[in-house]
Amino acid sequence: MTQLTRRALFSLPALAAAQPRRPPNIVLIMADDLGWADTGAYGADLHETPHIDRLARQGLRFTQACSAAPVCSPTRAALLTGKFPARLGITIWREGAAKPPSNRKLVPPVAETDLPHRETTLAEMLQAAGYVTGHVGKWHLGDASFYPETQGFDVNVGASHWGAPQTFWYPYRGTQRFRGEYRYVPGLDYGAAGEYLTDRLTSEALRFLDHARGQNRPFFLNLWYHNAHTPIEGKPELTARYRARVKPGMNHQNPDYAAMIHSLDENVGRLLDWLEKTGAAANTIVVFTSDNGGYIGRYDGRQVTSNAPLRSGKGSLYEGGLRVPMILRGPGIPAGAITDEPVTSCDLLPTLAELTGTTPSAAIDGLSLSPLVRDPRARLAREDLFFHYPHYYETTTPASAIRSRDWKLIEYFEDDRAELYNLARDPYEKQDLAAAEPARTAELRGRLAAWRTAVGARLPAPNRAGGTKQEGPE
Fold first, then answer.
1. Cβ–Cβ contacts within 10 Å for residue 52, how many?
2. Mean per-residue pLDDT for 188-193?
3. Would you please indicate which residues are annotated as catalytic (active-site) residues?
4. Same domain as 162, residue 286
5. What is the DSSP string of 126-190?
6. Does some domain include residue 150?
7. Domain end call among 382, 401, 422
8. Domain enclosing residue 258, as ranges
9. How far apart are CA 57 and CA 59, in angstroms?
10. Does residue 472 lie in a domain region?
11. Using alpha carbons only, how large is the chain's radius of gyration in Å?
C-alpha cells in the first residue's frame, strides 16, 4: 500500500464520512466551444440534454464559471497546469500563434505553440500518485513531441496538434476544409461508414476505463470531445428532429448544432451508465465543462449558436466568450447544489489535487474549490479574476480584462479604451459605466496592469507595415 493510499484522502472535515478506501477516480469531460446556455441545466430552449442535466442534479453546478481564456488552447493549458495562460505564454490556439495577422493596427505578441515540458500537468501529478491516466480526443497543445504521452498520460487516443477535425464522419480525414490541408484523427482505425466521431471517442474512453478497472488502481480519464466545434455536422435523423422543433423567438435556431449537442449528451450518458453499472460511480469525481464560450460566427450560412442572454461569444472577453458550464459530481460533493461564486479553469487542478489527497509540485494561480464543496454559498479567498487575449478574433480586438466581484473592466489595446460593467446589476453587459465611474475605472486598470507585469503577460505592438491576413478561426 502506497503512502498516498494510507493518507487522508479528503482534507475537508465535512467529507470525512465519505472518505473512500482509496483515492477517487476522475473522469474529466471537456466539450469544445460549448456555450454557457447550450444545455438544459443552463437554460437551453432548443437543445435536449437529459444526461448532462442529470449530472447537474446529482452534483454541484457553477453558474459563474469562466474559461481561463476565450479560445481553446490557452484554457486547456490552464486546466492542466493550474496557471494563467498569460503566465504560460499560451494565449491563442496553435495555428494562430504560428501565423498571426500582420495587416491590423496592432501586431499580436509571439505566443507559445506547445505546452512546455517544464510544467507539471494534472496527469503527471496523478500519475506520480499511482493513477492510471488516459487521454481521449482533442489535444491542440503541441506537436508530436508534446503529445499526451509526454505530459503524464499512459494512454492517448485521438490527440493531434490540430484544433478541429476534417469531419465528424469516419474515416475522419480529408482536405475539404482548412485551405486544402490534409487532416485526420489518429488512432481511430477499423471503423465503418456512418460511424460518428463523438460515439467513437466514447467507445475508446470506455475501452480505457475497462482497462484501468483491471489494474486495481485509481484512474484519471481526460476526455476532450470535439463537439460542438465546427464543422457543424449532426446526425441527419437528429437534425431533422430539431428542425421540426425550432420556433421563432428561440435563442437557439440551428438544428445541426442542436444535433451535435444531443450526441454529446448521449455520450456523456454512456459514461455515466458505465460508472453506475460497474459500481465505480460511488468513488468517481466527474467534471463537465467547456473550453470557452459558444462560437457565434456562421457556418454554412447559419449562425452556429447563441450565448443569449450573455453578450457576444468565443474570442471576446464579454461574458458570452468566457462563461462556460461547469459541474462537479462525486463522493462528498453535495447533490443538487448551486454556487454563484466566480471560478475559472485554473481552479480545477488544485481542486482535484485536494480531493485526491495529492499536492501540486509547483506554485499555481488557481484556488481549490473545496470551500464551495463544503458550502456552496461560501466565497473564495480572492477578489479578482484576470483574462488576457492580446489577439484578434471575429468578436474582438486585442484586450485584457479584470473581474473584481461584481465589477468587470475590459481594456482594449488598439485605442487604449476601457469598458466597465457591474455584473450584478447588468449581467448582460449593456451599460458601459467607464465614463460614469472614472475612479473605479482607473483603479481596476491599475490592478490589471500590475497583474500583467507580475505574470509576464506579452503585449501587442504597433504595426509599422502591412501584410497578410490572419488564419481563420479554429
1. 28
2. 96
3. 72, 140
4. yes
5. HHHTT-EEEEEE---S-SGGGSGGGTT-SEEES--S-SS-S-SBTT-EESSSGGG--EE-TT--S
6. yes
7. 382
8. 3-10+20-382
9. 6
10. no
11. 21
Q: What is the CATH number of the domain that holds 399?
A: 3.30.1120.10
Preceding omega of 41 cis (within 30 degrees of 0): no
- CA-to-CA distance for 429 and 447, rounded, in angstroms? 21
Largest Cα–Cα separation, the chain: 65
Question: Is residue 188 scored above 90 in pLDDT?
Answer: yes
Residue 474 lies in a domain: no
Residue 378 belongs to a domain: yes
Residue 454 CA to residue 257 CA, distance in Å, equals 40
First to last CA, the chain: 46
How does residue 290 score in pLDDT terms, banded at 50, 70 and 90?
very high
Taking the CA atoms of 106, 320, 382 and 436 in sequence, report the sign of the dihedral they define: positive
Regarding whether 409 and 345 lie in a shared domain, the answer is no
Instruction: State how many domains the chain has.
Output: 2
Specify the pLDDT at position 466: 59
DSSP 24: P
Are 176 and 325 in the same domain? yes
Between strands 132-137 and 219-224, the pairing is: parallel
Instruction: Say yes or no: 378 and 229 in one domain.
Output: yes
CA 188 to chain centre: 23
pLDDT for residue 8 is more than 50:
no
Q: Yes or no: say if 365 and 87 are a contact pair by the CB < 8 Å rule.
A: yes
Q: Please name the amino acid found at residue 339.
A: T
Q: Give the cell for residue 319.
A: 461574458
- In angstroms, rounded to a whole number, what is the distance separating the alpha carbons of residues 157 and 186? 7
